[in-house]
Design goal:
Elements: H1 7-17, E1 38-49, E2 59-60, E3 63-70, E4 74-77, E5 80-84, E6 91-99, E7 148-157, E8 161-170, E9 178-190, E10 193-204, H2 206-213, E11 230-242, E12 247-257, H3 260-263, E13 264-265, E14 271-272, E15 280-291
Antiparallel strand pairs: 1-2, 1-3, 1-15, 3-4, 4-5, 5-6, 6-7, 7-8, 8-9, 9-10, 10-11, 11-12, 12-15, 13-14
Length: 293
């Protein structure tokens, strides 16, 4: 049985979150940045991001960089390079570019795996991936491409709630598709530390999904396996407790669902995608964060 979520349910969840104070009154982790200055944090600890593919290695999270720079218009934020069209507007529109993350599940050394703070819950350790005859390990698949995405980003700071919407398309002509992401984050600070709860809903078109999660006939003993566009919701929770001006305790949790458009086939009969072991992706990290500047 696979997890299902509707766009209506997601929007209702967003409305529930929007009960807070303004950015100036919330936690420092609310990402209110100073222009013209680099911000660099590095967290050291233990954690991992699970890999939903058969034969895929879980990505260890021992070192998490967090680097950003915001000029008057140009910015860099954890692997995203952007240009803001009107920085004085409450609703900021930016041209953005970054590496597509899908190749990171197929390539252990992919540069798309470097920045994991884009959103980091079930805390399970690395586990054996038992294989059956019908399952297909990723080392038997053709090489999946590393793609460069470009698109538009909308940012809006509400009453205690940060909204972000992205439209991405393949600039590198690797998967010839597009995807959309809508996210919101709510920050709160109290005696127990700084908390941030975030939620997102992503839509990925069939060209992207087939490039990475479809299976050609040559890969699967003459039987092709095609997938459709996919909705992928996620929830994340971050907690940070300051020890002094530079050091803090940090924990990150994330849970992403992959819907049955990626995990099952719809024609002529439903069957399990031989590439997929799980219909969810879990990430967690616990450690110490050091703020350089």
């Amino acid at each position: 049985m696979f997890f299902r979520i509707t766009a209506t349910s997601f929007l209702l969840f967003m409305l529930v979150l929007q009960q807070a104070t303004a950015c100036e009154q919330t936690a420092p982790s609310a990402r209110c940045v100073t222009t013209g200055e680099w911000q660099l944090n590095v967290a050291i600890g233990a954690g991992y991001r699970s890999n939903p593919l058969h034969g895929g290695r879980n990505w260890p999270l021992w070192l998490l960089p967090d680097a950003s720079y915001y000029g008057e218009r140009w910015f860099f934020d954890n692997g995203t390079v952007g240009y803001t069209l009107d920085p004085t507007s409450d609703l900021q529109v930016s041209l953005v570019s970054r590496l597509n993350e899908e190749a990171g599940y197929f390539r252990h050394g992919s540069p798309a795996n470097i920045f994991q703070r884009q959103g980091i819950a079930n805390i399970d350790g690395p586990q054996e991936k038992f294989l059956f005859a019908s399952e297909l390990q990723i080392n038997k698949l053709d090489k999946r491409p590393l793609a460069l995405d470009g698109g538009l980003q909308l940012n809006w700071q509400g009453v205690g709630l940060q909204w972000q919407a992205n439209w991405w398309h393949d600039m590198s002509n690797q998967y010839h598709g597009q995807h959309i992401r809508l996210g919101a984050a709510y920050s709160l600070e109290n005696r127990s530390g700084a908390w941030q709860l975030s939620a997102a809903l992503a839509w990925k078109d069939k060209d992207l999904m087939n490039t990475y999660y479809g299976i050609s006939a040559t890969e699967n003993d003459g039987q092709a396996w095609l997938v459709s566009a996919s909705w992928q919701p996620e929830l994340a929770l971050q907690w940070q407790y300051p020890l002094n001006a530079s050091w803090s305790v940090l924990s990150l949790l994330r849970y992403r669902w992959v819907d049955d458009q990626a995990t099952t086939n719809t024609a002529p009969f439903k069957s399990q995608n031989p590439m997929m072991q799980e219909d969810r992706i879990r990430s967690w990290f616990v450690g110490l964060n050091y703020r350089f500047f």
